[in-house]
Amino acid sequence: MFLKDKNNFAVGSADKLITARTINGTSFNGTANITTANWGTARTLTIGKTGKSVNGSGNVSWSLSEIGAFSSGGGDVGGNIHLTPNNAGITGVCGGGTDRWSIIGGGADDNGYLEINTKDNGNEPIYARQYDANGLVRTASILDGQGNSGFPGMVRAPRFAISGSLGGDNNSIYQGSGDAADWNKHNLVIRSHWGIGFHDYSDACRIVFDTRNGNINTRGLLYSEGGISCTAWGHFNGSISVDGGATIGSHTYINAMSVSDKITGETKFSKDGAWYDPWSGVGCAIKTHGHIAATGIVRATDRMEINGCAISIQSSAPSCGGVWIQI
Predict the structure, then answer these.
(1) Distances (CA, A) of 62 to 48, 67, 134, 184, 229
(2) What span, in angstroms and rounded, lies between the C-alpha atoms of 222 and 238?
């Protein structure tokens, strides 16, 4: 068989190149197929955070740390993990495998949120815990199975508002305006839209603070070791027990004082200003429907009256001993 070259000269066919040539480092003379030792010019192949030269001359592999990936058993992260999609986060399994927990971020621009959640029956608690080398030290319950929160130490906040109450944020506790205890400055403010009720264990209201007019109502006795001082209108419709004495000023009436009630200290009833008596229509210093029980001395600097009749009491009657009462 003869082949012709491009100049129509006849050449003989051959099964072997006279001079062998090298292809990618492998000798080739045309007598058989070859597999080259490499792929030619090397190139850099980068996977993850590591690039390596690859030309086919040997095996090349990347470790998980070179790629920057975790194994199924976990690993360490030397930097931040940035999740760009909205509502992206980390999810895990808790409980028997059907319960889930997640930490996700979501929301809209300027209205985003971070959420820590559990998902299954709606009663899986969420805790924040502290440990030392020996184990658990303390637990804060962010949400327990009933939706309650509990903390092992002090809870600090500039203001506590009572959500869901009538009056809204008008019912709150917050810091006062100064270090004093007067009408203008005080350390702590308990703010109520209308009033505060104190209940017992059976949820029965026993004491009421009317915050709109300043009245205090109690179903029991009013006790004071330091005394009671009423400089304006003082209305006592129940029992009073004062061990330190009571100074009751110009506009005061006591509506019920029985023999079981007591004023054991020095007590002064003064009439420094006019007071309108709703029963008789005249001014008076003391008005009572019941008895007055005194363990000490009762003094009247002006006069005493019985059923409207003025009486005077002297320590001794003329020409005789004893007590002289003149009507």
Answers:
(1) 9, 7, 40, 73, 87
(2) 8
Does 268 reside within a domain? yes
Instruction: Report if pTM > 0.70.
Output: no
Order of strands, edge to edge, in the sheet holding 88-94?
A: 88-94, 99-108, 111-119
Of 201, 216, 231, the residue that ends a domain is: 216
Which residues fall within 8 angstroms of residue 244, CB to CB, at 6 or more apart? Answer: 224, 225, 226, 227, 265
Q: Are 292 and 225 in the same domain?
A: yes
As a whole number of angstroms, the distance between CA 153 and CA 220 comes to 34
Share above pLDDT 90 across residues of the chain, in percent, rounded to a whole number: 28
What gap in Å lies between CA 56 and CA 36, rounded to an integer? Answer: 9
Pair (202, 239) in one structural domain: no
How far is it, in rounded angstroms, from Cα 28 to Cα 35? 10
Give the C-alpha separation, 16 to 205, whole Å.
114
Instruction: Give the tokens for residue 109.
Output: 């621009």
Cα–Cα distance, 99 to 125 (Å, whole number): 12
Q: Are residues 206 and 230 in the same domain?
A: no
Q: pLDDT for 144-158, tens place per residue?
A: 989 999 999 999 999
